[in-house]
Design goal:
globular, alpha/beta, two-stranded antiparallel ribbon, 264 residues
């Protein structure tokens, strides 16, 4: 979500920078206890340790205005740390609409063990819900968003999902083949919510969507339509994706579309 921000706040790696927000040390301690085998539910920690290493790499940016927001999806209360100081640290209407759609169509979408990548994951609510519903999730966003994204994923999926989600940096339109080579990375679904708004990276966003989709990949895009540019992007989207309108949420002006890449 943070493509239009030129924030100078970068994720603080452990042992550097300001004190992390309340609760991060608690999460880190919880992981340590699990690793030592002295607390928490039983399980083979070695199976999830590589993903945990990725999740613990950075801590959230030290915003002053963090709040803990609660959501209920898939029968689970999800607590997400948000901040109005960054577009990428807020759950937007398209995100909650997409979560509702995933929850209501889990069996139809066959999400169990599905390989999913989320573009512009922000604070991570959509990735968390997809993980709870059984998917193998890779959550991506800008560098300054990753710390809070990691924190929220860890707090809400550790020891309660079949697959611990991964976190990867993804700057739209940059290093796509290098970081997400088509020969190696295949996703059943690419998810995106409220990634289209008033910013200057819409062409790079569309190029990123195209790169991540291969034959068999379904792109689910939920967006609150606010500006003329949003509808202009939709027209460009339809030029490269076979597009199906799936759902509308009139109270929030959110529409959800399914896209499959056109092939000559």
């Amino acid at each position: 979500m943070d493509q239009c921000l030129s924030s100078q706040l970068q994720p603080q790696c452990q042992g550097e920078g300001p004190r992390p927000p309340d609760g991060w040390l608690e999460a880190k301690e919880e992981v340590t206890l699990q690793k030592d085998g002295t607390s928490g539910p039983p399980g083979d920690f070695n199976k999830v340790e590589p993903s945990l290493h990725s999740l613990q790499k950075c801590v959230p940016t030290n915003y002053a205005s963090y709040t803990q927001e609660c959501y209920l999806f898939a029968g689970k209360e999800i607590v997400v740390q948000e901040s109005i100081e960054s577009y990428g640290a807020v759950v937007w209407p398209g995100g909650t609409a997409l979560c509702q759609y995933l929850e209501e169509h889990t069996e139809e979408l066959n999400l169990q063990d599905a390989r999913i990548l989320e573009i512009g994951a922000g604070p991570g609510l959509v990735s968390i819900v997809a993980s709870i519903l059984g998917a193998q999730v890779t959550a991506t966003d800008m560098p300054d968003v990753l710390g809070n994204l990691q924190y929220n994923l860890l707090k809400n999926t550790l020891n309660c999902t079949a697959h611990l989600p991964e976190v990867k940096e993804l700057v739209w339109g940059e290093g796509l083949e290098q970081n997400f080579p088509k020969s190696t990375f295949f996703y059943d679904y690419v998810l995106a919510s409220d990634v289209v708004y008033h910013h200057y990276f819409l062409d790079k966003l569309l190029a990123t969507m195209v790169h991540l989709c291969q034959p068999g990949t379904v792109l689910l895009w939920a967006n609150k339509f606010r500006f003329t540019a949003d509808y202009e992007f939709l027209e460009k989207f339809k030029q490269v994706f076979d597009t199906t309108f799936l759902a509308e949420f009139p109270e929030s002006s959110v529409k959800i579309f399914k896209g499959t890449l056109k092939w000559d």
